[in-house]
Amino acid sequence: MNPQRAEDGNLVVRIEDLHKSFGHLEILKGINMDVREGEVVVIFGRSGSGKSTLLRCINFLEDPTSGAIEVGGIRLSGGHRNRAKREQIRQLRMRTGMVFQQFNLFPQMTALQNVIEGPVTVKRIPEQAAQTVGLEILARVGLADKAQEHPIRLSGGQQQRVAIARALAMEPEVMLFDEPTSALDPELIGEVLATMKSLATELHITMIVVTHEMGFAREVAHRMAFFHEGVILEEGTPDELFNHTRFPETRRFLDAVL
Amino acid sequence: MKSDPVGAETARPRGFWARLEQLNLRIPYNAKLGAVWVAIFAFLAVLFSQAHFDTAWMRKNAWFITKGLWVTVFIAAVSIFFAIILALLGALGRLSKNPIAYGVSGFYASFFRGTPLIVQMFLIYLGLPVIGQAFREPFRGWFLLSAIVSGIAALSLNYGAYMTEIFRAGILSVPHGQSEAAEALGMTYRQRMSRVILPQAFRVIIPPTGNEFIAMMKDTALVSLLGTQISWADPFRRATLLGRADFRNLEALVVAAAWYWILTGFFTFFQRRLETRMSTGYVRQAAITKRPAAGRFIPASAGGGAGGGASMVEVPPGETGPRSEERPG
Amino acid sequence: MAERASIRRRTKGETGMKLSRWKALMVVLSAFVLVGVACGGGSSKKALLDQVKESGKLRVATDPAYPPQSSYDEATGTWEGFDIDVATEVAKRLGVEVDWQTPTWDLITAGNWNDRWDISVGSMTPIKERQQVLDFSPPYYFVPAVVVIKNDSSFTSLDQLAGKSIGSCAPCTYSFYIDRTLDIPGFPATFVLPEDMQFTGYDTDSTALQNLELGRLDAVLTSLTTATAAIAAGSSFKLLGDPVFYEPDSMAIDKNASDPESLAAAVTQIVNEMHADGTLSTLSKKWFDGLDLSVSAAG
Predict the structure, then answer these.
(1) Which residues of B fall below an 8 Å CB-CB distance to A?
(2) Would you call C74 and B250 a contact, using CB atoms and an 8 Å cutoff?
(3) pTM (2 decimals)?
(4) What is the tens place of the pLDDT at every residue in B299-311?
């Protein structure tokens, strides 16, 4: 089932001529991408090619060497950070929610406490209100009964779903997924992908997902981007990429993966 | 018996030694350990009687010497409190990109680890008033510290410098992903530190800090050398006073040593239980190394916790995790 | 556009507040330091004697482990000894109480007490170096210095100590005597000990005597009073020969205190009175086995 292209929605994320080098090694060689409201964009490509770096540049967990990122109206370019810029980055991050490969839940807090940590500490929402909303979000990812459990008592899949809930609680404009299932045992991958799918289809959350899960891409993505040697080589709907690739490299990669 | 062919060992009984070995295997470990301790104490008792100590004098004055232990515990408790604050600031400074913070904390750690504690005590006791001369009266008095306060100041600064490394290692032991997750939520540095990083770091920091406290209790004896008042005299001071007054120095010091030993043994017992509790339900493979020659405790857990959620060993609470190198008792 | 501007306002507001809070703190601290330093230097404090009389307390520094001059008696919970009684009497004649201080001996002899205490009554010898930092009263008693050896030692005269090991407190009058640098204005000393002895210094006489007992030393130079007390406490010592010199002992006041002469003059008068009316003789006989050390037995 191919969802419609959400081409006419508002612009949520704009990546403009993004370059990133680590020392002499240039990882991102000029990325340009627009993501609109409600779109699900899947970025795929070889491991270690820089896809995660690209994603992490969006919320400035990595500093772009040059180029600009615009999220929800905040536009920032790469380079040195001064105090003012750090605050702007913080504001930008409040508009993005990130889900990590290693979950990175806070181990000393329960699932619910993890979920409400952002709203309470960062947005200064009163704890009672945040808890009510937090429980709702946990219910939405199917973990309302685990609200009082610590992460160590949860399976990998459950932890990742709590991580998704935690990011959702901040009501971000875009959710960033950095290989969310790569660290999971195979039998747990499904529940996480199902949760992500429901975010897209039921909540119409704008999502940028870096993943190898082609099945998910085919089903849920509005757009897919093939990341190859520092640039987005090819971009298009899943149908276009799976069936009508323009570049042999794309074909080769998809054949190897599928 | 190496020349025996395999298989012949079980066939041929080796008599006395074999039976002894069988017996040895059946005695529980704790009983053997207890026997060793009894033997050591018996040996000490023999030495003791050889020395012809004036035991009557020791019995008469033991209580007076012991009463000073409250000073020991008090000074150590106050000093460790300030040392923890200094260590936290020092660690944050050593981890900072700010050149002022990094430089100042580096100087602090270097100086107070590079000079003997007793020298530091005297410097504060004698040197601070000299600085105070530059100020006028109400402020000048602030630089004239009593012996006890000088001692506490020196202990805090000295131990704070050593514990800076412990705190730094503890903070570094928190997986980087935790910091990233906090940042991604939009937390400021202060929020990150106080809500996410430090609570996790403290699990690694608390056991070695407990050991520092126990070590510090013995270093408090040095404060006497500044010339403390009798009302603030610790066992060492009391021992020297009485010992010199009655020409019974050795007896006095033996009594003081025994009580310091009992005190640290008492705290060490609780320290071990603390370490075990800290690792249940939440085991990081933090192998806590024994004291290196310099006498300072540095956990080897830095770098042992990389990877965040996926690498944590899941131990249901209630079960003890793998023990660090501790022998029972 | 409007959104971006509002973000800018918000960030400037937040960081602006943080920045100015730090700046304000810096300004306050610097002002504090500057005010403190600028008005530093001389102080208008009262004369030492007036301070003592007004506070009603004479803060006396005593060496707390030097029997029979000064030692701690846990039965009474306070100090006892010859120096203790002398100091108490001096305070009484000044019309005040005694407040005992127990710093280490080195701190007392070095002067620059920073007004931590008022006077030292600790059997201090007024040697030349100390007179540069301390004002001394006239001697209140004279302590014979003796050589102590073990009971089973075969020495019979001081010459036999040539090349042997001797110990004493250090640095103190006895160590200066041994290395022949002792210089007490008004009380010249003749050095009768052999020059080539191996000397070891200890933190107090008591420790030196302990080492004599253990066999690390052949002899110890100490005061007659200390030696007698040690023997009475059960150490197996005996004296070798006659006292080698008579050490005058005075009370000391910090030259760096404010108007030390005020107290020094009062104390000098009291010491002279205590000699004249026999108080010092009585105390001496009480603490030193009937010996009256308040007058010098030297020629």
Answers:
(1) 175, 177-178, 180-188, 191, 195-196, 199-200, 281-282, 307-310, 312, 314-316
(2) no
(3) 0.77
(4) 444 333 333 333 3
Q: Is C14 within the bounds of a domain? A: no
Question: Domain with C182 in it: what CATH number?
Answer: 3.40.190.10
CATH code for residues B63-281? 1.10.3720.10
Does the beta carbon of C231 lie under 8 angstroms from any beta carbon of chain B? no
C73 vs B: CB within 8 A: yes
Q: Would you state the structure tokens that stand for residue C87, as one six-digit string?
A: 């100091």
DSSP state of A82: -
Whether the pLDDT of residue C192 is over 70: the answer is yes
Which of C4, C10, C15 lies nearest to residue A83, judging by beta carbons? C15
Asked if residue C258 is part of any domain, the answer here is yes
Please check whether residues C136 and C74 belong to one and the same domain: yes
Q: How far is CA C163 from CA B39, B209, C156, C180, C219, in A?
A: 45, 53, 15, 16, 11
Closest chain B residue to C114, measured at CA = B129
- Residue B309: predicted pLDDT: 33
**C3 touches A: beta carbon within 8 Å:** yes
Let me know whether C79 and C195 are in one domain: no
The boundaries of the domain holding residue C160 are 143-248
- Name the closest residue on chain B to residue C34, using Cα atoms: B135
Are C217 and C228 part of one and the same domain? Answer: yes
What is the number of domains present in chain C? 2
Which of B64, B241, B246 comes nearest C64 by C-beta? B241
B226 shares contact with chain C (CB less than 8 Å): yes
Tell whether C292 is covered by a domain. no
pLDDT single digits (tens) A116-149: 999 999 999 999 999 999 999 999 999 999 999 9
Q: Based on the domain organization, do C209 and C73 belong to the same domain? A: no
pLDDT tens column, C128-184: 989 999 999 999 999 999 999 999 888 998 889 999 999 999 888 999 999 899 999
Asked whether residue B298 carries a pLDDT value surpassing 50, the answer given is no
Interface check A144 vs B, CB under 8 A: no
C102 found inside a domain? yes
